[in-house]
Amino acid sequence: MVYDVVIIGAGVAGLAAAMNLPKSKKVLIINKNHPWECNTFYAQGGVVTAINDEDEISLIQDTMEAGAGLCNEHAVRVLSEHSAQVVGNLIERGFEFDKNKEGELHYTKEAAHSASRILHAGGDATGRYLHHFLLEQNPHPMLEGAQVTDLLIDEGQCYGVCVNYNDEQKHIFSKSVVIASGGLGSLFSFHTNASKISGDLQGICLEKNIELERMEMLQFHPTVYVSSHAAQKQLLTEALRGEGAQLVGENNYAFMKDYDDRMELAPRDIVSRAIFDYKQRTGEEVYLSFNNFEEEYFNNRFPNIAANLRGIGYDLPKDRVPISPAFHYAIGGIKTNLDGEIKGVDNLYAIGEVASTGVHGANRLASNSLLEGLVFASRAAQKIKDKSVTYVPKEFPISTDSLRCEDDKLYKGQLRRIMWDDVGIVRTQRGLKEALNFIEDTLSKPIGRFLKLRLLTAKEIVKSALKRKVSVGVHYMSEDS
Ligand SMILES: Cc1cc2nc3c(=O)[nH]c(=O)nc-3n(C[C@H](O)[C@H](O)[C@H](O)COP(=O)(O)OP(=O)(O)OC[C@H]3O[C@@H](n4cnc5c(N)ncnc54)[C@H](O)[C@@H]3O)c2cc1C
Known about the structure:
It contains 14 helices and 19 strands. Strands 1, 2, 6, 7, 8, 9 and 18 form a seven-stranded mixed beta sheet that branches. It is of the alpha/beta class. Strand 7 (146-154) and strand 8 (157-165) form a beta hairpin. The protein has helices at 12-19, 39-42, 53-66, 73-93, 126-137, 200-207, 238-242, 268-282, 295-301, 303-311, 368-386, 408-422, 429-443, 449-467, and strands at residues 2-8, 27-31, 47-48, 107-108, 118-119, 142-144, 146-154, 157-165, 168-179, 212-213, 218-225, 234-235, 246-248, 287-289, 321-322, 324-330, 333-335, 348-350, 355-356. Bound molecules: flavin-adenine dinucleotide. The site of flavin-adenine dinucleotide has 45 residues, from helix 1, strand 2, helix 2, helix 5 and strand 7.
């Protein structure tokens, strides 16, 4: 059997592409784990939308400014100009964003936005609500628990994917393949991502000589409760700071005024580095304080954060919560055009966090990524519908490489620590070189394919970071000490 479209990933990008492909097409969505084990499910703050024509221009300006001069302006225009359309389409289909007391859409503000233009759902559970809604809208079958281990590519054409399903490798053939496999949080000791998001497809693309770009641009979220055991940490959404939460030291000193005039609403990289620096300089713990909130409002507006933290002993908004930055979002990725197409491989597309259209430049504006998923998925789906593909079946051998080896777990842990220590918020040439040595050394050992893909992705991040000698946006280089 040959599918019309195989979509790798069931987050916002994959499901939005599926929603825009008619039931008459043979579409299969593949995802690695349970469908909710994706970053989309965990998104809290909301979805950006330009509130009127004038705001389209401001959104472009804010996105470009956050991107520190490295954004692809055309991509940013497309994102902003399509925002009202894709968000309107969700509402028309029945998705309910939160409303104010007057029954109008409630727009909130996050860091580096010049206007309140972020819509949210379930208070602070936008991702969960949106994901559930997109799953309900999805007209196509889904193969859960299938991990893509390879792309079937020959002479510049993609023919399908190889998956590991029930511990067996099998090929799934398709006229078009859409990569919507998200970011790479699991490469770091501390991150906010779903646990299975580990940059597999970025690694596969590197093996196939497909171009990845801006891999050094990694966004660290400033306010994460990191004192839990799992690598995946509880995020404290930017909207909290947007609505008055403050960063304080041990004596409740609100230190952001010493770092940036925008204080808590400075872009994420600035806030992350300020926290890093304040901790290092003073040796103090840093907290998020909710003193400015009235209790009833807080519990209605941020019900899930209040409940999650109550579960670990914090009574919000009375208590302050210790926080630290953690890895959050991969800005770079598989290079695509604005229809998701990948140069050099016909019928292969990438959308969402795994892709790089250049829309985020050197730093992503808060809440632009759910929007990115919606906009570029709908454009890729349109491209696929418009294109006629002649498919001549082709044989591909099934690989006999081991997927896992005995010491993989050990190396995986070491990789995470090295990425956190040396490829994190503040980088040095020496640290990056050490990370590269470790990765190359590990790649030369007997390891399984899953680990190899992580290492290839990590290697590309480090190589890109080494190439960019000057600090810009989220990429911050310090002198070797
Ligand atoms: C805690 C948190 C809060 C956030 N808050 C916001 C917010 O408020 N607003 C905003 O705009 N953005 C937010 N973001 C970012 C945003 O959620 C993500 O960038 C976006 O959801 C990514 O969507 P995606 O569809 O590209 O990937 P994901 O939603 O991560 O989905 C990836 C899919 O790919 C599948 N997959 C991966 N590898 C394989 C493989 N090898 N084989 C098969 N399947 C595979 C996974 O199983 C999954 O289904 C947040 C992110 C996090 C982690």
